Amino acid sequence: MDRRKSIKSIILGGVAGGLALNGCKPENVEPTGENIALAAEKHFGRTPEEKELIEKLNAEQFLHPHEMATLNVLVALILPANESYGSALDAGVPDFIEFMTKDYPKFQTPIRGGLMWLDHKSNTDFSVEFIAATPEQQKTLLDAIAYPDVEVPENERPLEVQFFSLIRNLTLTGYYTSKMGIEDLGYVGNSPNVWDGVPEDVLKQHGMAYEEEWLAKCVDQSKRNTKAAWDEKGNLLT
């Protein structure tokens, strides 16, 4: 199993359950990637205060161009493209991480310091900055900080190791909550299934049967996405 498949199996088991669900919308609108993305751009479900904060943070820039260029290379190494989907860079993960440095300022020092460490270590070992190193050299640097000793408490590990763990977590979070990442997971959220009522053999076992009138009203699969409505007397209209 390659690295990407391993990551995907972990995400499916742990993160998918927490993703936003779109299958129980009362409107008769199919939740396509296009309208979900459009809703996200408009900050769907945000309070006015939240919208104001998001717009304020989007107008700011914490990481400078060289740091962003380094981050672009780093996230693509952590989660590269495969034959079906793009890399974390293609999914816009660097912009997500940049946003998180402003939304959660405690990330600023470890991320900026970690990016500086990558350049320093690359210059020391290979006489070039991290983004100018060869892919093999870059992977050599990352391999040295990517596998922490699990016996050592996280806050006692070397700072460069803590940095890489943070960036790796943010990369996976950013990718697998993006449109591309959700499609990669094959996650579709809650969707109405096809239900034909209680099985006939179970009904017979209990001496029960559906009334044809109600069977036609309640088990019409062509209307399963239609929102139920009643009149003033409680009679079902749809």
Q: What string, H for helix and E for strand, traces the elements in order?
A: HHHHHHHHHHH
Q: What oligomeric assembly is this protein in?
A: single chain
Shape: elongated
For the record, the count of structural domains works out to 2
End-to-end C-alpha gap: 50 Å
Strand content range: under 5%
Low-confidence blocks of residues = 15-27
| Sheet/helix structural class | mainly alpha
Largest sheet: none
Mean pLDDT comes to 85
Compute the number of helices. Answer: 11
Please compute the radius of gyration using only Cα atoms: 25 Å
The beta-strand count equals 0
Helix coverage percent? 40-55%
Protein name: Tat pathway signal protein
Pfam families: Gluconate_2-dh3
InterPro entries: Gluconate_2DH_su3
Organism: Cellulophaga baltica 18
Q: How would you describe this protein?
A:
It is a single chain. Helix content is 52%, strand content 0%. With 238 residues, the protein is mainly alpha-helical. It folds into two domains: 3-185, no CATH class; 194-238, no CATH class. The longest helix is centred in the middle third of the chain and has 19 residues, at 108-126. It is elongated.
